[in-house]
Design a protein that fits this description.
single chain; alpha+beta; Immunoglobulin-like; Neutral Protease, domain 2; 2 domains; 6-stranded mixed β-sheet; 38% helix; 22% strand; disordered N terminus
């Protein structure tokens, strides 16, 4: 009899805990929230704060945040941070977005936060706010907005001809690039336009000392819908926006575009053909052209920057002009299906990277050479997206350096997860509780019958 009572008590205990877990989180009524603020003095730190009425005595608070990835229709990053109580029912979080340390977490201005607060009162009851949105902009400046189609162009200071040109060219490059690649941009692209590199010093991630001393960062495509411009060059804006189009058209689930494909089309769309044609002609005259299969990632040194960009541009131009746009579109579509680069080229052009390079050399009148095959893995391996476009100081040309520190894991327990994973993480305890409850009920019924 005691055994039966123990089992029934255990079942009741699990049942009550299970039901209390389901009802633990309820939305706060609007009247309980006196203020809900997000501010930043500069882009290195965001302050989230909340003030509540005295209807409950809240002992703790936690901020949950999500950074949506519109290209995948899911959260690129999520995390949570403990709130600090400043006074009765007042809490805040100082969110560090740019520690200034190479490899640390970096969140660029232009991203949109989705967030909510969760509170616990003295009776251990949990409450939460409704989901909120916050567009992260540099708090040092008063931002103004120009918008057309999918472009949201943020600038500060006086409106001038260059701002107008960069805005209009960003709109046109989305239209022209989308037509060339036969894609559709279904979400907004945020362009953050700074007037000078010094104005944006707190809005950029830390780079290596060598790259900082030998190059000037002109612009960056940070995420699937955020571009920064640092030096008022409209060509840079077009280049970085094109990287977003490349991602939509050619990035697969596992494989990203090789450097020369991604940079080649982005440079092609800058409409600076005379500039890059001049560079490639000098390379041809000095026989310093570069094999495509050796340009899978960024250039290792600043000295190679000019050569990499010019070779990527020249190859892209040759593919489009010699074989036509239809084949180029097909090439991107196949890459998006996670074909490795040589397989995609063979399927569309009947070439691998080396034979395409040799054909291009022949087209340019260079001597016939033989190449030793570089063995490359046919297994799809995820690689970092190459994002920044650097304009080297004085004597060198564009440089792109991998600075993709965005959404690094840190003390806030950030994780790159999908919406489905977020759902599972939030409700796994309910599923486990339900399973335990069913098991205990079955055992109790079996023993009761015995």
């Amino acid at each position: 009899m005691l055994g039966k009572l123990f089992l029934l008590s255990l079942v009741c205990f699990f049942s009550l805990n299970f039901l209390s877990t389901i009802n633990a989180e309820t939305n706060l009524i609007a009247d309980e929230i006196q203020s809900l603020k997000v501010t930043n003095k500069d882009p290195r730190m965001i302050n989230f704060s909340v003030s509540l009425t005295e209807d409950h005595n809240y002992t703790s608070a936690r901020l949950f945040y999500f950074l949506p990835n519109p290209s995948l229709n899911k959260s690129a990053t999520r995390g949570d941070l403990n709130g600090i109580q400043s006074k009765f029912n007042n809490f805040y979080v100082d969110f560090d977005t740019n520690k200034g340390i190479t490899g640390s977490r970096f969140i660029p201005t232009g991203v949109t936060f989705e967030y909510y607060w969760e509170f616990t009162d003295v009776n251990k009851n949990n409450y939460k706010t409704e989901m909120q949105q916050y567009l992260f902009l540099d708090g040092q400046y008063e931002w103004k907005l120009l918008t057309a189609d999918n472009i949201f162009f943020y600038y500060y200071g006086n409106y001038n001809k260059n701002i107008q040109n960069c805005f209009l060219e960003s709109v046109s490059v989305v239209k022209d690039g989308s037509d060339l690649l036969a894609i559709k941009v279904s979400y907004p692209i945020n362009i953050i336009y700074y007037l000078s590199p010094s104005d944006s010093r707190y809005a950029k991630p830390t780079r290596s000392i060598v790259m900082d001393s030998m190059t000037v960062l002109g612009g960056v495509k940070y995420t699937s819908n955020v571009v920064h411009s640092y030096d008022q060059d409209c060509g840079v804006v077009k280049h970085e926006v094109t990287h977003i189009l490349n991602e939509i058209a050619g990035h697969g689930t596992l494989l990203k575009l090789p450097f020369w494909v991604d940079e080649g089309f982005a440079t092609y769309m800058m409409n600076k053909s005379d500039y890059y044609d001049n560079i490639i002609e000098k390379m041809i005259n000095k026989n310093t052209v570069i094999r495509l299969s050796s340009m899978q990632g960024k250039p290792g040194t600043p000295e190679k920057v000019n050569l990499y960009y010019a070779q990527s541009y020249a190859t892209t131009k040759y593919m489009i002009e010699q074989y036509g746009l239809e084949k180029y579109r097909s090439f991107f579509k196949i890459l998006k299906e996670d074909f490795v680069i040589d397989e995609a080229l063979q399927t569309v052009y009947g070439h691998d990277q080396d034979s395409l390079y040799l054909e291009w050399r022949q087209h340019k009148g260079l001597p016939i050479i033989k190449l030793v095959k570089i063995e490359q893995s046919s297994i799809p391996i995820p690689v970092a997206t190459i994002t920044p476009l650097n304009f080297p100081s004085k004597t060198t040309v564009n440089q792109q350096e991998v600075e993709n520190n965005f959404s690094k894991q840190n003390n806030s327990n950030e994780l790159a997860v999908s919406n489905f994973e977020i759902f599972i993480n939030n409700y796994i305890f309910i599923i486990v509780g339900a399973i335990l409850l069913l098991i205990m009920i079955k055992i109790s019924i079996f023993l009761w019958k015995k």
